[in-house]
Specification:
Distance between the termini of chain A: 60 Å
CATH architecture of the largest domain in chain A: Up-down Bundle
Number of helices of chain B: 16
Chains: A alpha/beta, B alpha+beta, C alpha+beta
CATH topology of the largest domain in chain A: Glutathione S-transferase Yfyf (Class Pi), Chain A, domain 2
Structural class of chain A: alpha/beta
Shape of chain A: globular
Radius of gyration of chain B: 22 Å
Number of helices of chain A: 26
Distance between the termini of chain B: 22 Å
Bound molecules: flavin-adenine dinucleotide, iron/sulfur cluster
Structural class of chain B: alpha+beta
CATH architecture of the largest domain in chain B: 2-Layer Sandwich
Number of domains of chain A: 4
Oligomer: heterotrimer
Number of domains of chain B: 3
Number of strands of chain B: 19
Number of strands of chain A: 9
Strand content of chain B: 15-25%
Helix content of chain A: 40-55%
Strand order of the largest sheet of chain B: 15-12-14-13-17-18-16-19
Helix content of chain B: 25-40%
Strand content of chain A: 5-15%
Largest sheet of chain B: 8 strands, antiparallel
Strand order of the largest sheet of chain A: 1-3-2-4-5
């Protein structure tokens, strides 16, 4: 329910000037009941209303009413949001929080001047790096060399990272597989046995750099299940990181590129193994709602988009010849559980290959990875990871499975730091292992 | 000894309550003596307004008032230095309101528990309060003394069934709190405050209570054990089972001699009372297994539970120089509380028995022929053994014993906080002056 | 900044991070889940009892009021500062200090979230019984202060029935213990008295709660009726026939349609009302009672009685119920929820009365409520932007509450009086009643620095018969 002061907004001048900011009909659905508070990772860690979903919405309202400037305070609290969308799951009133914060960020990008260095770094990451596979593979190569040549050890040893305050960030740098999936672009992988369906596969950006092996595994598992897999050559980054960071225009560009590249009558589904990409792609319809040329296509695209676990569970998994004998605990990635409401599919798959599924407490609490969050908000991310590891350590399992690349990376750091013996794997890697064991 | 109120005052009392309802003659007062202190007069008012007028009078003239119902609990408390007026509530014995369909009723504070029980019996309903001497105990007295019986196991203490109260304050205001309905958070919960306040915060004049539907049949399962430890183990098994009995009592070997349960000498008894259909009772049999020695129902069973309610009185009547203690400890401390009673009683040469809720609230009786000294040693040692977070209040003993020992013992509740409450409602401490623990 | 010196002192005791004073931070503590507003001058985050004591002492010395706040899910403005001053937030004082499995007790700090406690003890087969629909966010401290209930408190009782001890900081800054783990203690039951006092008597810093056992069997039934009257009469019969349901909730036709649209839980949209009935306990008992419930419902012209087949169906029905109010939000831009209670024999009467009120004012009123204990939650739909409607809503709300009291009921069953209904207290209590309550407050809270102007109405001289309701927002379970 709206409040009296909300209605009086007309007299004051809204802080949202660019037109990109969230509108009254979007945020006024929030009845400030507070039911989302405890589900919000930043609220749990900081205990501040300003870093809760309700508080962020209230700040948006205050900006709109001209009571709060788009200044340091507002930007800090909006920046801290992980975009995990746990609040959307919790909200009884159906508030589209994700859209509110995306729009708030878009407004921030337009009307707030960040410190110079931050500006340059953000621009470079979101405009260049994540938009072109070329730049990405360049940096990937550098990163790869950094890791392989022992330079990493040297740099760490010299304590320089500590001095730079980047120590934890370094642990998070994705270990880079040598062969990048970019080389697979344009290929078609035939189904094994009878073709049950055809799917286009999104190789992702961060994923394809650091996890080309995972992409290969995904293709193998799909093939095993009678899926012909297309890797459309012109595909681009899904735009998730851009949209979350407030670069909505860039995200829209990428969306159009992907629609052109992947939407086709020949293909039944568009599959991804990255939960963040999946949720963004399912949201293309919204992103391009005002684009007359693309809105219909975007809807069709969104309808065809499937997370790989959802896709396989719906298709019906072909049982492996031998069961996997391992106890597995499963961490729900935010962008799967909250953004896409997919919780049972990965669990069903794990059970189907014979895994002994052990539930950890709070499996749908954020691990702190959240796209680039673990780099940008390192301290908070570290706290979230620590809390996550508490929950994980309270159960005994051989494997810690999750269904998103970013989470795999983050959890590996956690497991390593805590000295746990668990293997951290993507669900698909486990399926692949089950199919490949003899 | 009290200074008799002046002639003028007794005239005023007579004016308020009617001459026939004020007594000042020694022979009318002897049976109202408390710890050797004879009251100056006794008044039996007929209306709440009369009580209010009496209290105003007492307040203005600083007269010490002892509110009294059935006069069954007056042994409790420290030795009074003076009693000016015993104020009897027995005339306020009407059922003011009974809504069987809502399972609620309002009664005057002077109605006895037995009278009230007959009223609700007529509607096949159950009064969840079953203190000792129910023929004489009034509802007001039961509340003031927080008296309870075996039904406490299922229904909790009186506080849990008390929906509302009306009382007259020390300065003669008629006030109420709570209400008649089963759920109510309007205003302060003075019902809780009145419960167990031993008439030091106001004169209770009416109470609103919850009643329950009466079960169609009852069954009692008697089990006996050679050791306390076994009895406690059996209790724990019941507490961990899905069963939810009405009553669950534990009885020491000596206390059992007062109970017609056909038990063997020297053994501990556990009495479980269940209610329900044949199928439900069959389930009890199955869960309790072969431990059960005897099982009974019907009129005998009713009698059996009456005796249990009254056992301590029987004990006190049959033994000279005895002290009854009301004990409350956490469930896991029951075994120790009973064991130390046995050990200490052995060491001091005191005869003892205990019976009550197996989960922690029970009565314990100590008697030591003619030796007050031995009783003093026993009670002190016993209280030490229990620790100061537990309750061990003497509810019956000789005045001689009271001269050597505090009847109240320790309490974890802050005494200064209690004084604040007392001061708020009885600034001059005219109600039961000197008898309460603060 | 007005309280600069105090802020400085507080920072030195609590640390830099624990004191907020910038306007952009303070504005986040001017609301709760209701409609009332009030902005604090300082916000503090204690972590220990010593912190709380220190804050109370320092503020007391300067005559600055303090309003405790849990999660701010209250619906009656309990955590809103009416006179500026300090808001003391318990979001960082949230440790479960002890779980005592043999005694079925837990000792918790006030900021522990209700559901978090139940989840933490689930592995022992235990849970914390009070289940306000806000349980996934509301704190135990808030529950204690409001004496919160929930759908299942019908059988298990409200918060006060599950608290055996407290640690409380009094107005003079002293931390005192009240009660403990044992069932009973000598002396006044100050623990019981303190529960439900909405922070006006003392600040709760520790709570000893009872834990309950998870039952062996649960049956959830949905009974569908043609009219709300039939459903109401069924409630009376169930009560009278001795069926002890653990939850007994009623949703009327309006609500049903909204809920079904929102959740697709399988609620029939063409019926007049449904009862959502839950039975818990021993398998045999539950089965027998389920049969009896079905029989009684059918005797009152139920169209059908359906039983949830499995946990999934059961959850679905409950999700529908718990999200009912949010779903009602689809019917109108705003709504205002009342929380009055009537005896269970008067449910049909009050529903008819509410219907009359709706007609009289030309408004829609949805009913979804705890029928088993007669605790109504009529939601009056309106448009907040229309001043005339707002007037009508308040008038209608007042009429309904007054009628509840006339029927032998009360103003609030679980949401508390707060600053929303304190001026309505004279409908229920006379001057003497209120005077005695006021004495208790001024004894414990002499300068009225702890949560001022809550629960009790302003003294009669300033009251002058004006009953201006600070309306609470229309959310509830
Ligand atoms: C969607 C929704 C559903 C709800 N459902 C129910 C329901 O089913 N049943 C029900 O009873 N209520 C319900 N409520 C109301 C509310 O959730 C409860 O009153 C809850 O107990 C408040 O807890 P809180 O932590 O949010 O407290 P707050 O709202 O922060 O504070 C409530 C009161 O407690 C006081 N307080 C908080 N902490 C302390 C402390 N440590 N010491 C002293 N005082 C303190 C505050 O000053 C205030 O007066 C609901 C609310 C919402 C929004
Ligand atoms: S998206 Fe996540 S971090 Fe952001 S407000 Fe919602 S729950 Fe909190
Ligand atoms: S749960 Fe939804 S409606 Fe409630 S405060 Fe959070 S965002 Fe707002």
């Amino acid at each position: 329910m709206s409040t009296a002061s909300q209605t009086g907004s007309a007299e004051q001048r809204s802080g949202f000037r660019s037109g990109a900011g969230p509108s009254w009909d979007l945020y006024s659905t929030c009845i400030h009941c507070g039911l989302c508070l405890e589900q919000c990772p930043t609220y749990r860690v900081l205990g501040l209303e300003a870093d809760s979903p309700r508080g962020r919405i209230y700040q948006v309202l205050q900006v709109d009413q001209g009571n709060l400037p788009i200044g340091n305070s507002f930007v800090t609290h909006i920046d801290r949001c992980l975009g995990c969308l746990a609040c959307e799951t919790a909200c009884p009133s159906g508030v589209s929080y994700g859209q509110i914060v995306e729009r708030a960020r878009a407004e921030i990008e337009k009307s707030y001047r960040r410190p110079l260095l931050a500006r340059i770094a953000r621009r470079y990451t979101y405009n260049k790096l994540l938009k072109s596979f070329g730049a990405l593979s360049f940096w990937a190569t550098v990163l790869y060399l950094y890791q392989q040549t022992g330079l990493q050890k040297l740099v760490r040893w010299s304590g320089i990272l500590k001095v730079l305050g980047l120590e934890n960030t370094d642990a998070l740098a994705p270990p880079v597989d040598r062969e990048f999936s970019f080389s697979d672009l344009g290929k078609v992988f035939p189904s094994e046995g009878e073709e049950r369906t055809r799917a286009a596969f999104l190789i992702g950006c961060v994923a394809s750099v650091s996890f080309s092996e995972l992409n290969r595994a995904t293709i193998r598992v799909l093939q095993k299940n009678g899926v012909t897999v297309f890797i459309p050559p012109k595909q681009a980054c899904c735009g998730a990181l851009h949209a979350h960071a407030g670069f909505r225009d860039d995200a829209s560009d990428l969306a159009r590129r992907n629609i052109d590249a992947m939407l086709s009558d020949k293909i039944d589904s568009i599959v991804t193994n990255a939960a963040g990409c999946g949720s963004t792609m399912k949201n293309y319809a919204n992103l391009l709602a005002n684009d007359v040329r693309y809105s219909a296509k975007a809807q069709a695209f969104a309808a065809k988009t499937k997370d790989v676990s959802e896709f396989l569970a719906e298709l019906g998994l072909r049982a492996p010849q031998r069961k996997l004998h391992a106890s597995v605990t499963y961490q729900d990635p935010c962008h799967l559980a909250h953004a896409q409401k997919i919780r049972s599919a990965p669990r069903e798959l794990l059970k189907a290959i014979g895994a002994d599924l052990i539930e950890m407490p709070h499996s749908d609490y954020c691990c702190g990875s959240a796209g680039t969050y673990n780099v940008v908000q390192n301290q908070l991310s570290t706290k979230l990871l620590a809390a996550k590891m508490e929950d994980i350590a309270s159960v005994t399992a051989d494997v810690l499975a999750t269904a998103n690349v970013g989470c795999v990376l983050q959890l590996r750091v956690g497991v390593q730091q805590r000295g746990l013996k668990m293997r951290v794997m993507h669900v698909i890697e486990l399926l692949d292992e089950a199919y490949r064991q003899t | 000894m009290s200074a008799a109120p002046s002639r003028a005052l007794s005239l005023e009392l007579a004016q308020i309550a009617g001459e026939e309802n004020v007594r000042e003659k020694a022979e009318d007062l002897r049976h109202l003596e408390i710890d050797g202190v004879t009251p100056a007069c006794v008044v039996t008012p007929q209306t709440v307004e009369q009580i209010a007028a009496i209290m105003r009078l007492a307040f203005n003239h600083d007269l010490v008032v002892v509110p009294a119902g059935g006069f069954t609990q007056q042994a409790i408390g420290r030795i009074p230095s003076r009693i000016d007026i015993v104020l009897r509530t027995e005339r306020l014995n009407r059922v003011e309101h009974y809504d069987p369909g809502d399972l609620t009723l309002s009664v005057g504070a002077g109605i006895t528990i037995a009278q009230l029980r007959r009223v609700v019996d007529g509607n096949r309903q159950l009064l969840p309060i079953d203190p000792a001497r129910s023929e004489r105990v009034t509802v007001g007295g039961a509340i003031a003394a927080n008296a309870s019986g075996a039904l406490q196991h299922r229904f909790g203490s009186i506080r849990e069934s008390l929906l509302g109260v009306r009382f007259v304050t020390a300065d003669g205001r008629i006030a109420k709190a709570g209400g008649r309905v089963v759920k109510n958070v309007a205003g302060y919960d003075l019902m809780k405050l009145m419960t167990g306040s031993f008439g030091t915060l106001g004169v209770l004049v009416s109470a609103n209570l919850k009643v329950f539907p009466a079960p169609h049949q009852y069954r009692t399962f008697v089990t006996e054990f050679v050791s306390l430890h076994q009895a406690i183990q059996y209790r724990d098994r019941i507490l961990q089972s899905p069963l939810s009995p009405l009553c669950l009592e534990i009885a020491s070997p000596e206390a059992r001699t007062m109970i017609p349960d056909g038990g063997s000498r020297g053994t501990w008894g556990v009495y479980l009372r269940a209610a329900g259909s044949d199928a439900v009772l069959a389930r009890y049999r199955q869960e309790l297994g072969t431990d059960v020695a005897r099982e009974g129902g019907g009129a005998d069973e009713e009698m059996f539970w009456r005796t249990i309610a009254d056992w301590a009185d029987l004990w006190a009547q049959s033994q000279n120089n005895c002290a009854l203690l009301r004990v409350s400890v956490p469930s896991s401390a029951v075994e120790n509380a009973l064991r130390s009673a046995a050990t200490l009683a052995g060491n001091t040469g005191v005869h003892w028995g205990a019976l009550g809720r197996a989960t922690g609230s029970f009565l314990i009786a100590f008697s030591a022929a003619e030796s007050v000294e031995r009783l003093v040693t026993m009670v002190n040692a016993y209280r030490n053994a229990l620790g100061c977070d537990s309750m061990a209040v003497i509810t019956h003993c000789s005045t001689a014993l009271k001269q050597h020992i505090d009847v109240w013992g320790t309490t974890p509740t802050d005494l200064a906080a209690m004084r604040i409450a007392r001061k708020a409602l009885d600034r001059k401490q005219i109600l039961n002056r000197g008898r309460f623990l603060i | 900044m007005k309280l600069a010196a105090l802020a400085k002192q507080l920072r030195s005791v609590l640390g830099e991070e624990a004191v907020l004073h910038h306007p952009e931070d303070l504005m986040l503590y001017e609301y709760d889940a209701g409609l009332a507003k009030g902005t604090p001058e300082l916000v503090v985050f204690p972590k220990t009892t010593e912190h709380v004591s220190a804050i109370v002492r320092l503020a007391g010395a300067r005559g600055v009021p303090i309003v405790p706040r849990g999660a701010g899910t209250g619906l009656s403005g309990g955590s809103i500062p009416r006179q500026g001053g300090i808001v003391m937030v318990f979001s960082r004082m949230r440790r479960i200090l002890e779980v005592d499995v043999p005694n079925r007790r837990a000792v918790v700090q006030p900021g522990v979230v209700n559901l978090e406690l139940s989840q933490a003890v689930a592995r022992y087969g235990l849970y914390f019984a009070p289940d306000p629909s806000s349980q996934k966010a509301s704190t135990i401290g808030g529950n204690v202060a409001e004496n919160s209930g929930g759908p299942h408190t019908l059988a298990y009782g409200v918060t006060v029935n599950h608290v055996t001890g407290l640690e409380v900081v009094l107005a003079d800054g002293r931390a005192v213990q009240l009660g403990g783990k044992a069932g009973e203690h000598a002396g006044y039951d100050l623990t019981g008295f303190l529960v439900g006092t909405e922070g006006t008597i003392g600040i709760v810093t520790k709570v000893v709660v009872k834990l309950s056992r998870i039952p062996e069997q649960i049956a959830t039934l949905l009974a569908v009726f043609q009219t709300a009257e039939d459903a109401a009469n069924t409630v009376t019969s169930l009560t009278a026939e001795g069926i002890t349901t653990s939850a007994l909730e009623m949703l009327d036709g309006w609500t049903l349609r909204a809920v079904e649209e929102a959740t697709h839980a399988g609620y029939p949209i063409d019926s007049g009302a449904v009862l959502l009935i839950e039975l818990e306990g021993l398998r045999e008992e539950v089965e027998e009672q389920a049969e009896a419930v079905a029989r009684i419902c059918m005797a009152h012209q139920a169209r059908e009685v359906r039983r949830a087949k499995d946990e999934r169906e059961r959850q679905l029905l409950w999700i529908g119920r718990k999200n009912a109010f949010a779903a009602i939000g689809r019917l109108a831009p705003s709504y205002y929820t009342q929380d009055g209670v009537v005896p269970r024999t008067k449910i049909a009467d009050i529903l008819r009365f509410i219907d009359g009120v709706a007609k009289k004012y030309g408004m829609t009123i949805c009913n979804v409520f705890h029928a088993g204990d007669g605790n109504l939650h009529p939601a009056i739909l309106f448009d907040l932007r229309d001043a005339e409607q707002v007037e009508k809503v308040h008038a209608a709300g007042r009429e309904i509450l007054t009628r509840c009291v006339e029927l032998g009921g009360t103003l609030t069953g679980e949401h508390g009086i707060g600053m929303e209904k304190n001026e309505l207290m004279p409908v229920l209590f006379n001057d003497d009643d209120l005077e005695v309550m006021a004495r208790m407050r001024s004894a414990f809270n002499p300068n009225e620095l702890l949560n001022p102007q809550k629960i009790l109405p302003a003294p009669r001289s300033c009251r002058e018969g004006v009953i201006s309701m600070q309306s609470a927002a229309g959310v509830e379970q």
